[in-house]
Backbone:
């Protein structure tokens, strides 16, 4: 079943790239494994998947230990006091959303003598329940990054509003791409756009996603929280 699901997702991504005039470009598929066990992660890796996403550190830590050869993406809300653990285990943090976290990551990155690769999470829909910088906060935030040389911001991330269908997600994704075009500059290319989940990844790819984060379309529905 996983194999069929993966084939479907890959085919949909390829078709969306084609429709968007992006044929030949690559979209990185991050397999989101929250609530998914080691057996299925092994199966996914055997099918060639290399990028995996988790949104809670506590759940992720044992999986990172079991699968150190995979690339792990942190996609959930990150508390500043967890910055060190996340930096140690994860390739890319998708959820940088505030200055206090920048400071914590900079300090921990210095201690570990490495860079903190991040995406800036934007709350474009303005929903109060969502984390992320507002559009209005973005310019100052990007300027301040100059003072934090260990923080490498590689792009932007967003989530569409809850409960919207994929048509409702489209303007949100389009706006993220506009913000990328508006704010990119030499040394801060913001090349990555992490947008699109099971319900809206096709639209996200049509609107320029370079990374999609997909759980249930691969592994089946999650048990209710
Ligand atoms: C759970 C989650 C996903 C994947 O959700 P699906 O709808 O199962 O594909 C993507 N991004 C984030 C931030 C998540 O928490």
Residues:
């Amino acid at each position: 079943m996983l194999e069929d699901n993966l084939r479907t997702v890959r085919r949909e991504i390829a078709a969306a790239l084609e429709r968007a005039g992006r044929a030949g470009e690559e979209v990185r598929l991050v397999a989101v494994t929250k609530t998914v066990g080691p057996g299925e992660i092994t199966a996914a890796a055997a099918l060639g998947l290399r990028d995996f996403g988790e949104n809670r550190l506590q759940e992720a830590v044992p999986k990172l230990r079991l699968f150190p050869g995979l690339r792990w993406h942190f996609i959930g809300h990150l508390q500043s006091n967890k910055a060190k653990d996340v930096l140690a285990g994860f390739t890319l943090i998708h959820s940088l959303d505030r200055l206090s976290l920048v400071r914590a990551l900079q300090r921990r990155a210095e201690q570990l003598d490495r860079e903190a690769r991040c995406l800036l999470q934007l709350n474009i829909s303005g929903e109060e329940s969502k984390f992320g910088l507002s559009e209005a906060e973005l310019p100052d935030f990007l300027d301040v990054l100059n003072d934090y040389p260990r923080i490498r911001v590689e792009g932007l991330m967003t989530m569409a509003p809850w409960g919207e269908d994929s048509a409702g997600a489209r303007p949100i994704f389009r706006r993220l791409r506009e913000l990328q075009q508006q704010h990119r500059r030499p040394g801060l290319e913001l090349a990555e756009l992490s947008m699109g989940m099971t319900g809206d990844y096709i639209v996200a790819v049509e609107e320029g996603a370079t990374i999609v984060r997909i759980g249930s379309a691969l592994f089946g529905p999650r048990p209710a929280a």
